[in-house]
Amino acid sequence: MSITTTGPATSQYSFDNAAREGDEQLRLLAGILDEHSTGVLARTGVTAGWRCLDIGPGAGTVTHWLAGRVGPGGHVTSLDLDPQHIPAAGNVTVQQGDVRTTELPADHFDLIHARLLLLHLTDRDEVIRRLVATLKPGGLLVTSDWDTTRHDVLLHAPNEAATAAFGVFQEALLGILESNGADLGWAHRAPLSLRAAGLVDIETEVHNRLWPGGTAANLLHVSNSYQLRDALVARGVTPEQLDLVRAAMLDPETMVYCYLTYTSIGRRPSR
Ligand SMILES: C[S@@+](CC[C@H](N)C(=O)[O-])C[C@H]1O[C@@H](n2cnc3c(N)ncnc32)[C@H](O)[C@@H]1O
Questions:
Q1: Has residue 3 got a pLDDT over 90?
Q2: Is the CB of residue 116 below 6 angstroms from any atom belonging to ligand 1?
Q3: Quick check: CB of 60 below 6 Å from ligand 1?
Q4: How far apart are the CA of 7 and the centre of ligand 1, in A?
Q5: Is residue 145 within 6 Å of ligand 1 at its C-beta?
Q6: pTM of the full structure
Q7: Which of 102, 218, 239, 257 is most buried (CB neighbours < 10 A)?
Q8: Could you tell me the residue range of the domain that residue 57 belongs to?
């Protein structure tokens, strides 16, 4: 199977896998979410011989988990704007490309996985329709996205100055994402998009957990504070506030919820 890239599209994606913090950011996302994602994917019954497509796989950890499940008789295509962090494997094709413009074969995949991708894309409903068309009849689309509209993710910080700084930091961070086309509340409505694209048997699971300071969800805030530093400062976050946020995220007394993760599964109707 080969998929071809028809041409570049302007990315709306707010982060950069090639940034100094890119590798760490993607590993932290995997640390936060892989246990949840692989649990849901295992329940889909993905097994030997399946053909899978992992879109926007970042560090590629889910790609490799899928590759283990489908075995040498199956195959995983791992498609990312910047796939530099995805390791190679015998039954994995790592493909550079934009999901909005990459030609995808019709009726081909048993399962497609997209995590923390669709919320970023303004034209996500069109992308979902393209994904449905590349599924085999009976194939499954699994999407996971964060709903970041709930702003009280910081449950406890070491001091009030840190709590206030975190609020300013979050507002600016989410503002950057939104200005680049992200829909911060789309995850909650994802089942409607899947249904509108013709998928059936839609199920959605909502996942969250609390993370103590110094663990993955906290470290992600630290990583993002460096990767998006200039854009955050341009939005009015002071360097002192960024320092307060970083120190708080490393303090073991701090308690931070992740954003709510909505994982939705839909099936393309069988013919
Ligand atoms: C937030 S990261 C999520 C990575 C991984 N799915 C995870 O959850 O750990 C988003 C990933 O999607 C990729 N991406 C963003 N826009 C894309 C597009 N239009 N087509 C393909 N990949 C895209 C980025 O390069 C990045 O690797």
A1: no
A2: yes
A3: no
A4: 18
A5: no
A6: 0.95
A7: 218
A8: 4-267
CA distance 268 to 258: 31
Tens of pLDDT, residues 162-188: 999 999 999 999 999 999 999 999 999
Strand order in the sheet with 255-257: 154-156, 255-257, 210-212
Note the pLDDT tens digit of each residue in 52-88. Answer: 999 999 999 999 999 999 999 999 999 999 999 999 9
CA 56, distance to chain mean position in Å, is 7
Angle of helix 160-179 versus helix 216-227 axis, rounded to 10: 60
Dihedral Cα 20, 211, 162, 178, nearest 10 deg = 60
Within its chain, how far is the Cα of 176 from the centroid?
16
Cα(139)–Cα(24) distance, integer angstroms? 33
Cβ distance 204 to 264 under 8 Å?
yes
Ligand 1 pocket, residue 13 CB under 6 Å: yes
Quick check: 217 pLDDT over 60?
yes
Task: For residue 170, give the nearest of 257, 253, 251 by alpha carbon.
Answer: 257
CATH number at residue 216: 3.40.50.150
Q: What is the pLDDT of residue 246?
A: 98
Please state, in angstroms and rounded to a whole number, the distance separating the CA atoms of residues 48 and 111.
Answer: 12
Quick one: DSSP state of residue 89?
B
Between CA 26 and CA 33 the distance in angstroms is 11
Question: Strand, helix or coil at 50?
Answer: coil
Three-state SS for 246?
Answer: helix
Contact call for residues 80 and 17 (beta carbons, < 8 A) = yes
Total structural domains in the chain? 1
Angstrom distances, CA of residue 102 to CA of 92, 99, 134, 135, 232:
17, 5, 11, 15, 32
